[in-house]
Amino acid sequence: MFKKPLAHQSNATPLRSSARRQLLNAIYEQYPSLRGESQAQDGSADKELGRMILPEGVRIATFETSVGTEGTFWLTPDGDPLWMTFGRSSKEYIPTLYLLSLSLPSPPLATIQIHNPLPPPILTGAPLFIPAVRNLSKPWLLSDVQEGQLVTFVSSPSNGIEDVRYVGVGRVVAKGGMKGALERRIDNLQNEGGEKEEGKFADILCIIEDHLWELGSKPSLSPFSLPIPINPLDQPPDQASSPVLSETAIQQLSITDENPQPEYIPGPSSISSSSSEPLSSSEISTLLSISLLQALKSLQGSSFPLPASLLYSAHVLPNRPSYIPKERREEVVIAKSDWKKLTKWMKELGKDGLLKIKETKGEVIVQSFDSNHPSLQSHSEFTTIAQEEQKAAKKAAREAASNPDGEPSNKINAQTSGTSGGGVGKGKGKELEIEELWKPSGGAIGFWEAAGVDKSTLHHPSELKTALDSYLTKHSLIHPSDHRYVLLDDELGRAVGIKPPEPGDKMARDEVMKKLKSGVSWSVSLGGVIKKGTLQPITMTVKTRQGRKTVTHVYGLETFNIDPDGFAEEMRKVCAGSASIQPLPGASPKLNLQEVQIQGSQVKLITEALVGRGIPKRWIKESEDSKKKK
């Protein structure tokens, strides 16, 4: 409800004493359990409780949410919202987390424990689904809440029942309430393998860290033991005469209690403990969601716009958690998630406000992302598959370098030496690892599939020649009298643009390789971050203005994740002259590309500064026009 800032909030005005007393009586009538048994006849304690839950000087304000829902707040003199209603004339007073943070004699609402860490979607206003609820296999710990009933949500860092804290307030919307939702869950697990869509269990009215929480002082929420339900769904096993759930059903739910299926974040222990079982679509969806958040944490705004397919393949997949067992990693893909299609997922994220997307000619383009989105702000980073693989590669390189039987190598030390240099030219920063990659595309896909090349993944350039040589040998296509030529069969002929080839048609091997290279889709890896298309170097051009004034123009910085503003600031100090930022001439305004203009002919100092940032010299060039003028 409060995933975005309020559209409007009126000035808070003090509530009259008579209105306060009427409101207090209405709250006691709606929440009789709030007083507790011992305070029912104790007038002094009743007054003390009244001053706590609705203090003297309480203020009232109206509000409108970002989706147009109107309501009313009752706030403490310090501005903490204690109660709220939705609708202009509503008499349903809903407690907030600020009220629940007080030392209340007893809980005002039924309490439901949910898994920790909290499901990321509910932090952004998404509903709660029944598998995210804990204690499903212990119905005596579940309140028999009905459809439409208000509830409080608690969670524990240890997922135990001794140290829970309030995290939110919601309304049950599942048909049949808790009992109906649980019966459907059991039927799903027993007859559908847990894959059937069960519908939402509860709507979230307020949740920790949302914009309602941000309105007040954000007090600490004290831990307490999970309250025993006044009206439990079932009696404990030693007291139940006719249990609601069969023993088989409870055993089935016990499995999902330990390894919950839906929105909560599957952690290392929960996944590794069930690595022999396939991941559910809900678990895969959650893993992909946190992988996207991990990727967005490392991406800069200059990386966008970006095709959704490239964001998924080059950023989301490499940022999947490394704790996913290797034999299960191939399962964590969009086709096996709840969304099934990438477009559906992207549109959902667009509605949520995390991504800004645009659909053009059937392709979804991600224009930008909201770096202040609650799900990004609350995301806890983890070790990714890409980081794990990079670490393993470095370890292998170190072992190879220290092998006494192999060729000694100091390349690693040479690359990392001088990273602490204080200025340009005083040391060389760790060189950025740049690697060109390719994958099959266009009319040659049939050939690459026949050559055993996976069309969905990126490959090293050396695999082009390896795959071609293997195919030629396997199909006996090397010219018998001149190995510089190869014979063309249907697949190879189609790949090089000759279809259908005549028997005996041949082509020079170098020409075949050239045509195959031009027919694939190229990408580039910059320090492990994949970018689509061929890589263009950072270019410097020295131009003369107004007769004698020279200015060095530098562009292409964004491709290498260099902020033009930061680079300009660095060059002002290094060159002891002016440096400005201008839009790159000839580039589309949508791309937001810029060039840095530096006073004087500064090619050498600029090159040293870029090398100091880890850019290899082969990716820094001076334009031909500048060279001719020298």
Instruction: Summarize the main sheet.
Output: 6 strands, antiparallel
Low-confidence stretches: 258-264, 272-276, 404-427
**CATH architecture annotation name of the largest domain:** Roll
The percentage helix is 25-40%
CATH class annotation of the largest domain: Alpha Beta
Strand content: 15-25%
The total count of helices amounts to 20
Number of strands: 23
Distance between the termini: 65 Å
Mean pLDDT: 81
Which outline best applies?
globular
The name CATH uses for the topology of the largest domain is Sulfate adenylyltransferase
How many structural domains in the coordinates? 4
Domain SUI1: 538-614
Biased composition (Basic and acidic residues): 388-398
Biased composition (Low complexity): 269-278
GO biological process, one term: formation of translation preinitiation complex
